[in-house]
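Give me the fold.
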Amino acid sequence: MAFESLSDKLQNVFSGLKGKGVLAEKDIDKALREVKLALLEADVNFKVVKEFVAEIKDECMGEEVMKSLTPAQQVIKIVNGKLIELMGGTGTKLTYSSSGFTTIMLAGLQGTGKTTTCGKLASWLKQTGKKPYIAACDVQRPAAIDQLEVIGKAVKTPVYADRQEKDPVRIAKAAREEADLKGYNVLLIDTAGRLQIDEELMDELSRMKKEVKPHQVLLAVDALTGQDAVSAAKGFNEKLGIDGIIMTKMDGDSRGGAALSAKKVTGKPILFMGTGEKYDALEPFHPERMASRILGMGDMLTLIETAEQAYDEEQAAKLEERLRKNQFTLDDYLDQMAQVKKMGGLGKVISMIPGLGGSNVKEEDIEEGERQFRQMESIIQSMTKKERDDPAILNASRRKRIAAGSGHTVSDVNNVIKKYEETKKLVKKFMKPGALKKSGLFRGMF
């Protein structure tokens, strides 16, 4: 998970401060040395780390902190504020042309996931009510157009492709006219990449930017490449001029150095981050929420938004009605587990709950939770429809049959039934009219 290693280290640093009633300068110096090492190990740019730590020390040595009844909390508050500032302050949103038609040009080196990100961005735009259209303008990489057409089909977004035309600028212009004619309001231009920044690539992209005049130029960079990603972003910005960054493969980067350095080094905000392989695994980047996650304080707003996207309103209404009639079945229970999967799995959900993220929950605990999910799913699916609708009929012989059919023990079957009954009681206890439809957090969380 993103920032996992850094989060663990910083939380350990602050745990050491919390035991002290009063902080001396040597306490702050020691803590900041550990913060500095943690940031460097997370592959944050050295100059960024040096300036970041110096600014924190200046504020920590102030009278308000040193004489506070809870100095450790004051230090955490300062670090939180500086992390938010480091990553860009308040979240920067994607902006659209006032004309009603927006052209977005995606650039990036080969291997950054740019073409896949184009599909993810199209999927995200559709969720926000936009009608995207994709232009396949990478005429250099073999099968690039084929790949984009497969992605377009997967996200139900049309792709403009011209396999005869070799000039990407002409393709982009034709796609712009086609999109406008057919009533689409956002054109996404997928451009060619290279293994490294070269003059030929920059000339092509600069010519496209000049002639097509995109409303925004977004750069896809691979978070896993650390400071190489930041250097690439700096190079693209200096030679092409970009408006924002999409940090891909954040789910595989436990360090997070690129995300922490990018805004400071390039001056350009991170707009989105890729959080998985699926086409809905693209999240707007919110510095304040990310800082909260890093410091182990969770991210409830993103959790609620993710739950709202994962759950269907009509399904919620039906489930609410069933709960009122005391008809919460094992099928309903299985549906709720499916919602957690749609939200990115147990690990992602836990990382956003205050007090549970970071070092408080070990990777092996998450893996065990995922294993139990799979076990419950296989056990419930081994039951007949009648048994799932009315678990009260599950006598000893039925449970033995289910255990054999699912490849688990009778004890495992009993445990699933026990958890189901506990969940049913809990839901009934806290259920109020309209709760499922009003509370994005409640949806999918039991």
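The beta strands are 102-107, 132-136, 159-160, 186-190, 216-222, 244-248, 270-274, 282-284.
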